[in-house]
Amino acid sequence: MKELNYLCKLKLIYKIMNKALQRLGEYVLLMKKSITLPDRWSMFFKQLVREIYKLGVDSLWIVIIISVFIGTVIAIQISLNIHSPLIPKFTIGYTTREIVLLEFSSSIMCLILAGKVGSNIASEIGTMRVTEQIDAMEIMGVNSANFLILPKIVGLMVFIPVLVIISMFTGILGGIAASHSSGTGMTPASFEYGLQYFFTEFYAWYSIIKSIVYAFIISSISAYFGYNVKGGALDVGKASTNAVVMSSIMILLADVIMTKIMLT
To answer: Among 25, 128, 167, 256, which one has the highest count of C-beta atoms within 10 angstroms of its own C-beta?
Structure first.
């Protein structure tokens, strides 16, 4: 019985690894097919502008709203948990700035965008797949992967630094707004001093570089799941969910690797 259970576990692990390797191979081949020079540059730039507006500009409102509230909450929570007279009050502004710059405006914000942008990409391409629009492009001799996926990847990678900078700015504005409220235990002067204290410019660039990598992860993985949909409308929904989950996991993994490489 023990040997049978052991064999069943080995068989399950083999199936999981085989499926993972198969998906990895399909993903690499799709990216190889997608990341090539466009056949018609004029059409590519039109698609690029459309994707920048749809994936980037349309996400501005959610970035601004979430950043303001998170920046405010971070400042309030830090101020409420610092009671020691040995810790100066400007530490609140300093800590808020570091959290916003190092993690929130890049990693956490991109996790949120993976849900909005990733599901959008996967569902759009998946719908084109199940309605046979992609098959029609292939019959006409069009590189459908390059035509559909490359503008989305480039568009998101181009505009996401703008979203990150806006997130940094509005997140810190939220912290400043919290410093003006009563009962938080901090003053605007001490908070602003903390924002300026021992500022490291590289942290802002570090956040922007990370976000560009995350943009590629979100757009390419979502496009992969959408492009390889098989079935009907229900499968499009499953592909959209899988795209968000896998993008989030890869963002967290990339966050660990890039933090280890760039900050140590």
So the answer is: 167
